[in-house]
């Protein structure tokens, strides 16, 4: 599936028109995750659909969802901007950035320098780079380009093999472990537990996907995660603010 998405992305890049520069200040994604509101930092994801789950949110109002996340004390937001597979759009991110005060991560399949420039222009504070999508040297090139644009990078891996290849070339400040198997789409938090041991201690570790309950939060925290990225389990609930409180065991409905 990842290869298919990347092929589509290459085609999109051929016709990519860069937008006007958004006049909004950059916010530090790394600082927000390093000083969380709770025991672990939360990156709450604004996500309409996915290839594995189809439509996740019917009445999709990205700005309202983002505001509800901020009210629930999310430390940062992640916004899907891929149109073809996730029904996202770059305007979702631009609109959200204008209405919240927390940093915003652009979640897309970034494989080319023009997309880094695009991300900076639409108001992103950080971008996702996928370890399995590119060779480590190309990832490093995009990572350094992002830094020049004052963009933090969440560099995610789905396997120990990818992490080791990556660390042989450079050490990202923020490393994500995606608990979703790229081939089967199944999630297992065991992924975080197994790979976390090999992440350098000074790097900020994010556990992504498959986090639904407070027990899951506790599990990945114990495994070494300093932050979590949660999308579907929050998006499927009616009230995103309460959904966050429930996830952290704070609401009366928590147990």
UniProtKB/TrEMBL annotation:
Keywords from the UniProt entry: Amino-acid biosynthesis, Aromatic amino acid biosynthesis, Decarboxylase, Lyase, Tryptophan biosynthesis
Top-rank taxon: Bacteria
Stored Gene3D superfamilies: Aldolase class I
Catalysis: reaction(s): 1-(2-carboxyphenylamino)-1-deoxy-D-ribulose 5-phosphate + H(+) = (1S,2R)-1-C-(indol-3-yl)glycerol 3-phosphate + CO2 + H2O
Residue intervals of the Indole-3-glycerol phosphate synthase domain: 6-247
Listed GO MF terms: indole-3-glycerol-phosphate synthase activity; phosphoribosylanthranilate isomerase activity
Pfam families: IGPS
Pathway note: Amino-acid biosynthesis; L-tryptophan biosynthesis; L-tryptophan from chorismate: step 4/5
SUPFAM superfamilies: Ribulose-phoshate binding barrel (SSF51366)
Transmembrane segments: none
Gene Ontology process terms (BP): L-tryptophan biosynthetic process
Enzyme Commission (EC) number: 4.1.1.48
CDD domains, A to Z: IGPS (cd00331)
Family annotation (InterPro entries): Aldolase_TIM, Indole-3-glycerol_P_synth, Indole-3-glycerol_P_synth_dom, Indole-3-GlycerolPSynthase_CS, RibuloseP-bd_barrel
Family according to the record: Belongs to the TrpC family.
NCBIfam families: PRK00278.2-2, PRK00278.2-4
Protein name, as recorded: Indole-3-glycerol phosphate synthase
